[in-house]
């Protein structure tokens, strides 16, 4: 019955309904051979701006109008029309091109690049507040150009082949000469005094900021550098977004630490946070202390620590400088994540310890000095000469040396066996010489304590020798019994 009713509707009417939809009509005309349209081609193409913005990486050049021509410059129009021209130019820049094919749409790409440069100049020299409509169009254009999905590189295969990720050439985006101008435009727009944060926050919102944070995983270091600067300016200008930005970065860190251990922008995030931590008011909020304990300290866990350790160490040291009582918490936290089989990470940890100990006061030092110097003692006797050498360099720091001297009665008995064994057996000449210097410091400082430690060490060595001899005798006796009873197959009892 339904088929019969539908069959009676003339097909011509269906065609009229389809043609009455202007967007469908213009789209079908483009597909049917690109017939000429009477209206401005740029404006018509951007009438479907949402289609352009939602276009994926496979949709490059899909919505380019038949005629993509440059608009008049700002000098060629009266002041009353400049803002309208500005909006038209912004809409024109929403068109996305495929930069992987250098021979495609060359003229149009250059027109867009020159238009973007004009927009940067206009925003820089603007002398009137940007309207809400302008802000909305700016965010649409920036979103259309920079927000995209990255294709991850097969990093695991490269590691298997024995290639060090730190020595790889970074992947450069072929669209960067174009993207750079878009980022520069966004930076100038955010920092412009003509951008009212109270209005702009409706468009530079949580969704926009979250997508911006996702871009930090770009493999192009030039892009991450711009993102770092822009994020810092947004954090400074939009106070309402500050808690959200901190929580969002926190979430990215958790995902990196406990799940993937893969992210290209950790160092840049930490640079931004270093500046933020530097501006924290005193006394520190509990939220900020939790960030130190739950995020910054666990960031020492991943294997790729060397890629961002300098920035991480700065952030941690900033906390201790602001609140010296946190020194004990930080040192114990680092000891918890101390690397067992990675010597290069051990050297990084020792570097960080020196920076933290430089700003540590005596009461906090005394709370953690026993576990701290138990670990340093293990580093002193390390067969990896860089680890042993770096731990001995701690005595070159005057503040740390004074802390050790004031607490020598606790510290020397802990590290003396390592010092003495280094002077007798260590294979590296530099480590041997540095150990002798440290040994002399303690001997000149407190000869009685030094001799007491020497006597205890000798006693322990004798005990150790007797235990070793007993162990060897036990094994020899076991071998003899085994040889006597080999033919009988009887069970052997060792007395």
What's the short story on this structure?
The chain is mainly alpha-helical.
The average pLDDT value, as a whole number, equals 83
Q: Give the helix tally.
A: 25
Taken in chain order, the helices and strands follow as HHHHHHHHHHHHHHHHHHHHHHHHH
Number of strands: 0
**How far is it from the N-terminal to the C-terminal residue, by CA?**
103 Å
Structural class computed from helices and strand pairing:
mainly alpha
Helix content: 55-70%
Percent strand equals under 5%
- Mass-distribution shape: elongated
Largest sheet: none
How big is the Rg? 34 Å
Low-confidence stretches: 8-63, 156-165
Description:
- There is one protein chain.
- By secondary structure, the protein is mainly alpha-helical.
- The chain is 66% helix and 0% strand.
- The chain has 25 helices and no strands.
- Helix 21 (385-392) runs parallel beside helix 24.
- The protein is elongated and about 105 Å long.
- Residues 8-63 and 156-165 have low confidence and may be disordered.
Helix-strand blueprint:
Blueprint: H1 2-7, H2 11-19, H3 22-31, H4 41-45, H5 49-53, H6 79-92, H7 106-124, H8 132-146, H9 155-160, H10 176-191, H11 197-200, H12 206-214, H13 221-237, H14 242-260, H15 266-278, H16 286-296, H17 309-322, H18 327-336, H19 343-358, H20 362-380, H21 385-392, H22 398-406, H23 408-425, H24 429-445, H25 447-484
Helix pairs in contact: 6-7, 6-8, 7-10, 8-10, 10-13, 12-14, 13-15, 15-17, 17-19, 18-19, 18-20, 19-21, 20-23, 21-24, 23-24, 23-25, 24-25
């Amino acid at each position: 019955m339904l088929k019969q009713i539908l069959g009676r509707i003339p097909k011509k009417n269906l065609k009229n309904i389809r043609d009455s939809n202007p967007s469908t009509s213009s789209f079908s005309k483009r597909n049917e051979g690109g017939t000429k349209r009477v209206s401005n081609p740029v404006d018509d193409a951007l009438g479907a701006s949402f289609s352009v913005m939602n276009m994926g990486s496979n949709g490059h050049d899909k919505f380019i109008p038949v005629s993509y021509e440059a608009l008049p410059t700002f000098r060629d129009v009266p002041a009353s029309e400049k803002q309208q021209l500005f909006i038209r130019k912004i809409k024109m820049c929403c068109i996305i091109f495929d930069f992987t094919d250098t021979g495609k749409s060359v003229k149009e790409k250059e027109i867009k690049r020159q238009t973007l440069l004009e927009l940067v100049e206009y925003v820089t020299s603007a002398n009137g507040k940007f309207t809400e409509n302008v802000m909305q169009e700016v965010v649409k254009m920036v979103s259309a150009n920079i927000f995209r999905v990255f294709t991850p590189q097969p990093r695991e295969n490269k590691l298997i082949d024995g290639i060090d990720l730190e020595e790889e050439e970074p992947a450069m985006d072929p669209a960067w000469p174009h993207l750079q101008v878009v980022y520069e435009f966004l930076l100038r727009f955010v920092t412009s005094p003509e951008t009212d944060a109270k209005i702009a926050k409706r468009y530079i919102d949580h969704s926009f900021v979250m997508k911006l944070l996702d871009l930090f995983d770009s493999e192009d270091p030039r892009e991450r550098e711009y993102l770092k600067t822009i994020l810092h300016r947004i954090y400074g200008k939009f106070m309402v977004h500050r808690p959200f930005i901190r929580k969002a970065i926190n979430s990215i860190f958790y995902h990196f630490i406990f799940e993937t251990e893969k992210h290209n922008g950790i160092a840049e995030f930490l640079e931004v946070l270093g500046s933020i931590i530097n501006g924290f008011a005193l006394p520190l909020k509990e939220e900020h202390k939790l960030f130190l304990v739950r995020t910054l300290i666990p960031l020492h866990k991943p294997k790729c620590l060397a890629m961002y350790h300098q920035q991480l160490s700065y952030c941690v040291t900033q906390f201790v400088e602001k609140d010296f009582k946190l020194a004990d918490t930080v040192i114990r936290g680092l000891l918890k994540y101390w690397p067992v089989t990675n010597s290069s990470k051990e050297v990084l940890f020792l570097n960080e310890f020196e920076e933290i100990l430089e700003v540590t006061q005596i009461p906090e030092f005394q709370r953690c000095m026993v576990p701290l110097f138990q670990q340093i003692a293990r580093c002193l006797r390390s067969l990896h000469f860089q680890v042993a050498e770096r731990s001995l360099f701690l005595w070159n720091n005057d503040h740390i040396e004074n802390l050790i001297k004031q607490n020598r009665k606790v510290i020397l008995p802990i590290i003396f066996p390592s010092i003495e064994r280094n002077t007798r057996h260590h294979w590296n000449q530099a480590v041997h010489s540095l150990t002798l210097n440290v040994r002399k410091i303690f001997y000149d400082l407190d000869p009685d304590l030094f001799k007491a430690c020497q006597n205890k060490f000798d006693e322990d060595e004798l005990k150790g020798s007797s235990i070793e001899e007993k162990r060897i005798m036990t094994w020899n006796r076991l071998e003899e019994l085994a040889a006597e009873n080999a033919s009988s197959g009887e069970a052997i009892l060792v007395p």
